[in-house]
Specification:
This protein has 115 residues and is an alpha+beta fold. It has a single domain, classed as Nuclear Transport Factor 2, Chain: A. It has a 6-stranded mixed sheet with strand order 2-1-6-5-4-3, with helices on one face. A hairpin with a 2-residue loop joins strand 5 and strand 6. The two termini are 26 Å apart.
Length: 115
Protein backbone atom coordinates (compact mmCIF):
# COMPACT_ATOMS: atom_id res chain seq x y z
CA UNK A 1 0.00 0.00 0.00
CA UNK A 2 1.96 3.04 1.19
CA UNK A 3 3.85 4.59 4.05
CA UNK A 4 0.69 6.57 4.76
CA UNK A 5 -1.28 3.32 5.20
CA UNK A 6 1.40 1.94 7.51
CA UNK A 7 1.38 5.13 9.60
CA UNK A 8 -2.43 4.91 9.82
CA UNK A 9 -2.17 1.29 11.01
CA UNK A 10 0.33 2.25 13.72
CA UNK A 11 -1.75 5.27 14.75
CA UNK A 12 -4.84 3.06 15.09
CA UNK A 13 -2.83 0.54 17.11
CA UNK A 14 -1.49 3.22 19.46
CA UNK A 15 -4.94 4.74 19.92
CA UNK A 16 -6.34 1.31 20.76
CA UNK A 17 -3.57 0.69 23.29
CA UNK A 18 -4.26 3.98 25.07
CA UNK A 19 -8.08 3.82 24.92
CA UNK A 20 -8.72 0.09 25.16
CA UNK A 21 -11.07 0.30 22.15
CA UNK A 22 -9.78 -2.05 19.44
CA UNK A 23 -12.74 -1.71 17.06
CA UNK A 24 -11.23 0.85 14.64
CA UNK A 25 -7.90 -0.98 14.58
CA UNK A 26 -9.49 -4.37 13.91
CA UNK A 27 -11.73 -2.87 11.19
CA UNK A 28 -8.58 -2.41 9.10
CA UNK A 29 -8.23 -6.19 8.74
CA UNK A 30 -9.86 -8.18 5.95
CA UNK A 31 -12.57 -10.55 7.28
CA UNK A 32 -10.31 -13.51 6.38
CA UNK A 33 -7.06 -11.94 7.60
CA UNK A 34 -4.37 -13.96 9.32
CA UNK A 35 -2.22 -12.47 12.07
CA UNK A 36 0.93 -14.38 13.02
CA UNK A 37 3.55 -13.67 15.67
CA UNK A 38 7.15 -14.88 15.47
CA UNK A 39 8.67 -15.09 18.92
CA UNK A 40 5.90 -15.09 21.51
CA UNK A 41 3.86 -18.28 21.89
CA UNK A 42 0.56 -16.83 20.62
CA UNK A 43 -1.52 -17.24 17.49
CA UNK A 44 -1.84 -17.48 14.66
CA UNK A 45 -5.24 -15.83 14.58
CA UNK A 46 -7.39 -16.42 11.51
CA UNK A 47 -10.23 -14.05 10.68
CA UNK A 48 -11.06 -10.54 11.84
CA UNK A 49 -13.22 -11.88 14.68
CA UNK A 50 -10.39 -14.06 16.03
CA UNK A 51 -8.01 -11.10 15.83
CA UNK A 52 -10.49 -8.93 17.73
CA UNK A 53 -10.93 -11.64 20.38
CA UNK A 54 -7.16 -11.94 20.80
CA UNK A 55 -6.76 -8.21 21.42
CA UNK A 56 -9.73 -8.18 23.80
CA UNK A 57 -8.40 -11.14 25.78
CA UNK A 58 -4.78 -10.00 26.07
CA UNK A 59 -4.36 -6.40 24.91
CA UNK A 60 -0.86 -4.99 24.47
CA UNK A 61 0.06 -2.18 26.83
CA UNK A 62 2.94 -0.63 24.89
CA UNK A 63 2.72 1.78 21.97
CA UNK A 64 5.04 1.68 18.96
CA UNK A 65 6.65 4.00 16.45
CA UNK A 66 7.73 3.31 12.91
CA UNK A 67 11.50 3.27 12.41
CA UNK A 68 11.53 2.49 8.68
CA UNK A 69 9.20 1.21 5.97
CA UNK A 70 9.78 -0.35 2.57
CA UNK A 71 7.94 -2.36 -0.07
CA UNK A 72 8.83 -5.90 -1.06
CA UNK A 73 6.61 -7.07 -3.88
CA UNK A 74 3.06 -6.75 -2.56
CA UNK A 75 4.02 -6.35 1.09
CA UNK A 76 4.91 -3.46 3.35
CA UNK A 77 7.88 -4.23 5.58
CA UNK A 78 7.99 -2.05 8.69
CA UNK A 79 10.59 -1.93 11.42
CA UNK A 80 9.22 -0.54 14.65
CA UNK A 81 10.29 0.33 18.17
CA UNK A 82 8.24 -0.09 21.32
CA UNK A 83 7.87 2.96 23.53
CA UNK A 84 9.38 1.07 26.48
CA UNK A 85 12.22 -0.52 24.54
CA UNK A 86 12.56 -3.37 22.11
CA UNK A 87 12.10 -3.57 18.36
CA UNK A 88 10.48 -5.72 15.74
CA UNK A 89 9.30 -6.03 12.17
CA UNK A 90 5.80 -6.13 10.72
CA UNK A 91 5.05 -7.55 7.29
CA UNK A 92 1.67 -6.44 5.98
CA UNK A 93 -0.14 -7.86 2.94
CA UNK A 94 -3.35 -6.34 1.60
CA UNK A 95 -6.52 -7.35 -0.20
CA UNK A 96 -9.35 -4.96 -1.04
CA UNK A 97 -7.46 -2.13 0.75
CA UNK A 98 -7.55 -4.09 4.02
CA UNK A 99 -4.81 -6.04 5.79
CA UNK A 100 -5.08 -9.66 4.68
CA UNK A 101 -1.99 -10.94 6.49
CA UNK A 102 0.12 -9.45 9.26
CA UNK A 103 3.26 -11.12 10.53
CA UNK A 104 4.90 -9.55 13.56
CA UNK A 105 8.46 -10.59 14.41
CA UNK A 106 9.89 -9.51 17.74
CA UNK A 107 13.61 -8.91 18.04
CA UNK A 108 15.30 -10.33 21.09
CA UNK A 109 15.06 -7.94 24.02
CA UNK A 110 16.56 -9.12 27.29
CA UNK A 111 14.99 -6.21 29.21
CA UNK A 112 11.30 -6.89 28.58
CA UNK A 113 9.41 -9.43 26.47
CA UNK A 114 6.46 -8.04 24.49
CA UNK A 115 3.19 -9.75 23.79
Amino acid sequence: MSEQAVRAHIDLFNTAVTTGDWSAFVAGFHPDAVMTFVGPPVGPFTGRDAIAEAYAADPPDDTMRMVAASRDGGADIVTFAWSRGGTGTMTLHYRDDLISALTVTFDESPARPHR
